[in-house]
Automatic annotation (TrEMBL):
Pfam families from the UniProt entry: DUF3712
Transmembrane segments: 39-63
GO CC terms of this entry: fungal-type vacuole membrane
Name this polypeptide is given: Uncharacterized protein
Region (Disordered): 1-24
Keywords: Membrane, Transmembrane, Transmembrane helix
Amino acid sequence: MEDEKYTSHVESGAANGGPSAPPQKVSFWTKRKNHYKRFWWLHLLILIIVVLVVTLPLVYVGFPNIAQSQLNKSTLNITMQQITNPTPTSVQLAQMAIAGNPSSYHPNLDGFQAALFLEDTEPNIQPFGYIEIPPLHATRYTGITTNQTLNITNMDQFTAYNNLGLTTKTYRVALRGRTKLHEMKFPTTTVDFNQVVTLNGLNNFDGINVTNFQLFLTPQGPDQANLIGEILIPNPTIQAIEFGNVTFNVSVDGQNIGQSFLNNLMLMPGNHTYPLRSTTDQEAVIGLITSKYKDGILPLTLIGESVVYNGQHLPYFEGPLRNSTQHLNLNVGPALAQLGLNLGSLSGSNSTG
């Protein structure tokens, strides 16, 4: 009876707001679930921030570095070059080149201005001119064609460039510029274009030779030429160069015997012959034949004197030609025979005289 009274009292107390039974314990996973229901927006915001922290450096720092690295691996090969219409301060420069891109990326590059310079002026480069590179879509191999007036910005450096081209077998010229690179949805990035191109040089016109000629007792034409013929000038380069009127001083063993003229010279790639006119001191030539070179073969030395185009001297061609020496052997025996002069009789008359 007492227990029944106690139970009835407790139930009555609970019903009247007295002490209640302890609450059931909520599990960890239930709490977590409830937390995410209430604060889902906060966790989404944190996720977005984390993603941005990871991807933004990749896009805005990593991608520009990757783009520059891939551009540094590209190659440039010049396949054709023409230098025409030279003036004392400019030339017309036409070029064709192939740009190689080993990357799997095929970006677009904006057009840009590239400086042309010699490597030995780095790091403080001294450009001798600037060319405009057109916009490019960088596929595996991309053709580049330019044709523009190259204004000479540094005469000493342009002269040095031509000196390398004339006197060496190979030489290097560098290009440097800055442009914008576009690739898919990545942000536009600025990249530096740095290339060094190796070109074949003229190697001092190695192999130059007078292929045929005639001697005249009476000077011919306004230049008073008494030797007229053709000269072979090897050009192992991809360059065609318009020189204009080129004059060489000609000597044998240091003794001047005259001048040779290559008028309206347009030097083309390959082995080609060009018209040659010379004024020679015939008495000096006869003296050399009768004294030392009785076989009629004269060892000629040619040194550039002047290069003139449209009446104007071109110092960037003249300087290298004056510093360059060409040697060739000239057999004057057949030409003298055409004039009725026999080498044997000339030598005999000299020995008896």
